[in-house]
Specification:
With 300 residues, this protein is an alpha/beta fold. The protein contains nine helices and nine strands. It folds into two domains: 133 residues, Aspartate/ornithine carbamoyltransferase (Rossmann fold); 155 residues, Rossmann fold. The strands form two sheets. The protein has a five-stranded parallel β-sheet, covered by helices on one side. Bound molecules: N-carbamoyl-L-aspartate.
Length: 300
Amino acid sequence: MKNMISMRDLSKKDILHLMEIAAKIEDGEIVPDLKGRLAALLFFEPSTRTMFSFDTAVKRMNGSTIIMSGTKNTSSKKGETFADTLQTIAQYSDIIIMRTPVEGAARYASEIVNIPVVNAGDGANQHPTQALLDLYSIMKTQGTLEGLKVGLAGDLRFGRTVHSLAQALSLFGVQFKFISPSFLQMPEYIKDDLEARKIKFTELDDIEGNIDDLDILYVTRIQKERFADPEDYENLKGSYILKKSMLDNVKTNFKVMHPLPRVDEINTDVDDTKYAYYFPQAKNGVFTRQALIAILLGEV
Ligand code: NCD
């Protein structure tokens, strides 16, 4: 593993290795040491969990970080190209972790610098490190990644987290329910990938009545910032909301996950149930990101 750009670049073996390292880091069995190493966090788009959990991950391993959050105070305002900014940052750091609104930008970056690049989200395309923490969370709560029934709900069209997660879980014989308004259905290219891997999925438009046989329900926010026409967003907002009253007949091992931030798609009355897993899920991001960085920097 040289970079982390897309979930499609990873084999089942790579994923399981990373899960194992993350678990050992969580248990304290492996303590990677990044003393003297520096990670550059370049966030051209807003972020809370991804940015802070990467920052935390590096610092927990005694490494340090430089952070660019937005482009307001950087030379891109003076007309510097993305390529020149990256080449410069690569002179200072050992690894680049980056988020941009541009699909394919992380791949492009990995081709122009000679240090590892991690895609922390490229537009509506991919968010592979979120998928890794999602897999780790599923493994922790279900004891396996194999043969589960997983519902992906919400904005499956513009949501990069569900694109990466669907591709990742397709390596483990999962059965999917894709639950979304028709405007926000899973893109054809992802469905084609799943079909090529003989993964079964159904497409539904309502959460209610469709979750009792699931092991995991993964809910996502409507990605307002990706809509070309704000009116489309206005028509769709609030169109699906998970409520506590819908959980009466779910399986005992059932968990609700969400990459966060949430807007209104999970009612707060779900938070106190034993099914809510979205905040521990966020914590798992630190262990998986520690594992990934340690692997990419050759420290484990
Ligand atoms: C997600 C993202 O940025 O794609 N957030 C995250 O990284 N946890 C999901 C979202 O913004 O809705």
